[in-house]
Write a structure and sequence with these properties.
By secondary structure, the protein is mostly beta strands. Helices cover 7% and strands 36% of the residues. A 5-stranded antiparallel beta sheet has the order 6-5-4-7-8, with no helix packed on it.
Length: 127
């Protein structure tokens, strides 16, 4: 089955423990969120591509008043993580304290249906 280039398809990949991005066969760039055409060259010659799940934190904050759907997480840390090809993905960092963090800290993308996004991050390097 060929997956459409939609957020629903991205979530199905996450449910199957796969971190997939869209690659343009015309210009070679990769991107998320998925779109039906390349945001760089407008080509529709696209494919899904799996990339590595280790990335680095480029921004982080601690949330004390949870958003709708995140109420069970009390206070939590949200990180913005950059992966190969410049792909950036926000998400919850599990089992960490804000004092453990800094820009450039490596994290691993993990998948779980217990999180509204379908994924979370864990620390990958000793501090």
């Amino acid at each position: 089955m060929v997956e459409e280039f939609t957020l629903e398809s991205f979530k199905r990949f996450c449910e199957n423990n796969r971190f997939m991005v869209v690659k343009c066969n015309n210009c070679g760039r990769i991107f998320l969120p998925p779109k039906m055409f390349c945001p760089y060259c407008d080509s529709k010659d696209l494919v899904w591509m799996e990339i590595g799940r280790v990335g680095v934190i480029v921004s982080y904050t601690e949330v004390h008043v949870p958003l709708k759907g995140f109420e069970k997480f009390n206070s939590y840390i949200v990180v913005l993580v950059e992966f190969e090809g410049g792909i950036r993905l926000p998400g919850i960092l599990k089992n960490a304290k804000i004092s453990d963090l800094d820009i450039g800290v490596k994290v691993l993308l993990e998948f779980s249906k217990d999180y509204p996004s379908g994924y979370y991050f864990t620390l990958q390097q000793p501090l």
